[in-house]
Amino acid sequence: MALIALYVFAAFIVIFLAVFIKDFIKNRKSHYKYHKGEVIMAFVLLAPSVVLAFFLVLLPIITSLGFSFTNYTLGDPNNISLAGGDGFGNFRDLISEFQIKGDFYHAIKNTAIFVVFVVPIQIGLALGLALFVNNKRRGTTIFKVCFFAPVAVSLSVTAFFWREVLANRPDGIMNSILANFGIPNQDFLGTDKILGWMIAISAWQGCGYQMLIFLSALGNIRKDLYEAARVDGANSFQRFKTVTIPGLRPTMLFILITVFIGACRVLIQPMLLDQGVYPGSVTLSLYMYNQGQKYGNVGLSCAVALLMTIVIGSITFLQRQLLKEKKK
Amino acid sequence: MKKRYLNDPNFVRSKKSKKKIIYSVIYYLTGTALSLLFILPLLYMLAASTKSEAAVATSNGTFLMFIPDFTNLSVFFDNYAVVFGERYHIWTYAINSLIYCLVVIVLNTLVNGLAGYVLAKFHFPAKGFFSFIIIFLMVVPVETSIIPLLSIVQDLLHLNKGFFSIIAIVIPSIISVFNIFLYTQFFSSIPKEYEEAMHIDGAGRVRMFFNLILPLSKPIVATTAVFTFIGVWNDYVWPSLVVDNRGTSGWPLYPIQYAVNIITSSDGITTGQIMAALVITTLPIFILYVAAQKYIVKGFGTAGLKM
Lengths: 328, 307
What we know:
The complex is a heterodimer of chains A (about 325) and B (about 300). Chain A has about 325 residues and is mostly helical. Chain A contains 14 helices and no strands. In chain A, α13 runs antiparallel to α14 (about 300-325). The relative contact order of chain A is 0.11. Chain B has 2 domains: about 10-70, no CATH class; about 85-265, Orthogonal Bundle (MetI-like fold), CATH 1.10.3720.10. Helices cover about 70% and strands about 0% of the residues of chain B. In chain B, α4 (about 90-120) crosses α7 (about 165-175) and α11 (about 220-235) crosses α15. The termini of chain B are far apart.
């Protein structure tokens, strides 16, 4: 660990010095000279953020990359070697676990299902709500506040609340409500149902946030475009198709990417809603977290992180390209 | 008789009024139904927190479960009393979280603000290098590196030692590359003449930062402070990884979100008490959302910059 940090630090310093000297030589010919006091002051004031960013942002990213090829274990920094002899042991482990349909297989499956459902539901809901309240009627502010209220509740409090509501006990809130209508005890957070609840709760909680972003984008669409379309005889659906949708495209791209990334990383809901159905609720983030924290397999955990980063990064890039092309 | 013109709004309304009223009714009915969908779970949380266990059980399934029990005011705050009381003492965790939030806000503003100031206003070699690193770190997803971050923090500050555990909780929130970027953008727009005037008066760069740059940048500082507060108060995963109670004498170090997990899953707690704990955890954020509305809306504007 300390060795990796040292190497990264050395590389950082070498690059920094190279750029520093290059700039310095260039500056000798320029008429806008550096002042010695200003340069020293700049580095003194930059020092805290550079030190913190180095140790807490840059180093984790680089060590994560490095660890994924090792069998590094948490709290055992002296015993470190290449995983499986050639460094690809973690990835082979993951592939074999995928083939025997172990936890990793479930993690990929659950995350994929979660993303496929939550992204369109949440964005669709957010857009629908934004269009619904985007008019001059009285009282829409109250609707907006109601739609936004779940956003103000933290992810973990939401999970604790729904864990109580959906508890598989006769005195669980939902079960005692249903009992009054004569419906027998249900296991809402069972293996086959927990994912559905996760999707519903996420969309319920998150869509108010995207609604506000959509609303500000709707407010930015020029009113004269609607007038022009109306003069040209477009009905409300045609106006929506030719004015609203193109006007929302950049916002749509932003929301699509952020919701997608957020959905890929879903961690707190499976972690806190799970009442002992572990492989049924596991997501990639939870798998990564458990491997690193519970079992101490930092190497394997970082390998998952690396795969996630590559997959998320490439799909995000693809979405961006696709939506940009349509714009032309 | 008053003459009616085609552009008279009353004339148009009288023609369309029936259709319009029906539309309005449908609109408000749909809106109310949708609002209830979003707000009812929260109303239940609030209502159940004021009821005894028996009252919760009898009201479940009826409309009364969403309404606080105003008929029995003697027990109205009983659950809150229990949650604040000796057994769960949620106030200690709330104070912990509040201290963490304030420490992070102050240090975050200082560290990132100074960095933004240097990058915006100073002329020094290797400036491009630092700007490049900031853009690079903003693009690379950070959250996937939580486990390596844990091992780094564990190696740097040996955990399980009380005070270091506090540092471990707050330290990752202090640095925010995105905030450095925001500050740099904002400070660049402050005219150089102000600084030159202060320079003639003999002020140093640090004094300029505190007496000129920060006061001029109140909106952006307030916005980032609000979002930092929400982020730290609501953080669950990171504190749950690093916090450890061993070695501290008496005062538990858990931030509130983690403590609520322990409280709500402890034996013998009633539904009402759980809901009271959840309400207490959520209330400061609700108040902040209402009080700092202006800055939060501004934050939505800057959210687009993140791309």
